[in-house]
Design brief:
The protein is mostly beta strands. Helices cover 9% and strands 32% of the residues. The termini are far apart. GO terms for molecular function: heme binding; molybdenum ion binding; molybdopterin cofactor binding; sulfite oxidase activity.
């Protein structure tokens, strides 16, 4: 009996009521990982702690010298560049917070069956590379150009479609300087690790992680809107499978707490002692600069303004916030809520969508404050 790709590649679906995580989701969770939230104490996330989402396989690149990045399509002077040649061009280093578009998916009801993220799919790194706009200027973009398509070396099947991982950006974003898109070859001052796209990757400040194409090998300028799978089928915000949906683009505002105290192993409930406790965390938004963070220690009944550190010139990176709290013995639920300059705020009730994308519901952190007199 002849089998088709569709027979080994399941379609998108929602978990049935009461359905736990299946082997398919557990397999995804085992090969991808989130940021341990206590690691938000680092301004810059070490590469091994930064979140990872790999759609297919991590390509094996035995020799960087053999790698070529092509810039072609609707250009006057096609380019073919090695990583070494890119490193001779003017370099830019930008601190950028990356967040997976599906962060928070596992908290939705019904749950979209995919990578089962809670809230840890985030990290902040300093990326060094060549501004994409300079490469496109060197290649000479044609006047009829519309989109720029980016092709990675990772290859697989998704919902019955065999493909290289491909995404596109509108020409004005690809050639703009706010944000300035990078073809990056270094992370935190070191060559890209394999899991982060070695030898070259795209970095699109302010956009969710699906736009940051790893293992980048082709940049193709096209004169019609790109309709590849990852652009027009995946990464769309829709309520039903028949809808075209809205594209996932810039990161919605979010604040996360660095979990206070210490954890119970299984429940992850935090344990603190009575008395002053500094609550702190990070906040970010790709839509506009974060302007304030509020904190609740009573399950969202009341909110209080936190102290927000300046961004120190790092527009596209998270910002530290803090507030003192004096817990009394008992059980508490902590939350933080970010607001940005454009008026966007984290919702107190999460809107649902079929793909589980752009979730930024306020975090809930259970905390148990011990009673010293009861020991």
């Amino acid at each position: 009996m002849t089998r088709r790709l569709a027979d080994v590649s399941t379609s998108a679906r929602l978990a049935t009521p009461g359905e736990g995580l299946g082997q398919d989701e557990l397999a995804l969770a085992a090969r991808n990982h989130g940021l341990p939230l206590e690691a938000m104490r680092y301004d810059i996330t070490p590469p091994g702690l930064h979140y990872i989402l790999t759609h297919y396989d991590i390509p094996h690149v035995p020799d960087d010298a053999a790698w070529r990045l092509t810039v072609n399509g609707r250009v006057r002077h096609p380019l073919s560049l090695s990583p070494a040649q890119l490193r001779t061009r003017p370099a830019v280093t930008t601190r950028v917070t990356l967040e997976c578009a599906g962060n928070g998916r596992a908290l939705l009801t019904p749950r979209p069956v995919s990578q089962p993220w809670l809230v840890e799919a985030v990290g902040t790194a300093e990326w060094t590379g060549v501004p994409l706009r300079l490469l496109l200027d060197e290649a000479g973009v044609a006047s009829d150009a519309v989109d720029v398509v980016f092709t990675g070396a990772d290859h697989g099947v998704e919902r019955g479609v065999e493909q290289d991982y491909q995404r596109s950006l509108p020409l004005d974003i690809a050639t703009g300087d706010e944000p300035e898109v990078l073809v990056a070859y270094a992370m935190n001052g070191q060559p890209l690790p394999p899991q982060h796209g070695s030898p070259l990757r795209l970095v699109v400040p302010g956009w969710y992680g699906m736009a940051h194409v790893k293992w980048l090998r082709d940049v193709t300028v096209v004169d019609t809107p790109f309709t590849g799978f990852q652009q027009s089928v995946a990464y769309r915000i829709r309520q039903g499978p028949e809808e075209a949906g809205e594209p996932v683009t810039r990161i919605a505002p979010r604040a996360l707490l660095i979990p206070p105290g210490f954890p119970d192993f299984m429940s992850r409930t935090r344990v603190v002692a009575p008395g002053p406790v500094r609550l702190e965390g990070r906040a970010w938004s790709g839509r506009a600069p974060v302007t304030s963070v509020e904190v609740s220690t009573d399950s969202g009944a009341t909110w209080h303004r936190a102290e927000l550190e300046p961004d120190h010139g790092h527009r596209w990176a998270w910002r530290r916030w803090s507030r003192m709290w004096s817990p009394v013995p008992g059980t508490h639920v902590l939350s933080a809520r970010a607001y940005d300059e454009a008026g966007n705020a984290q919702p107190l009730e999460q809107p649902w969508n079929r793909g589980g994308f752009a979730n930024n519901l306020v975090q809930r952190v259970p905390v148990f404050c011990t009673d010293p007199t009861s020991r």
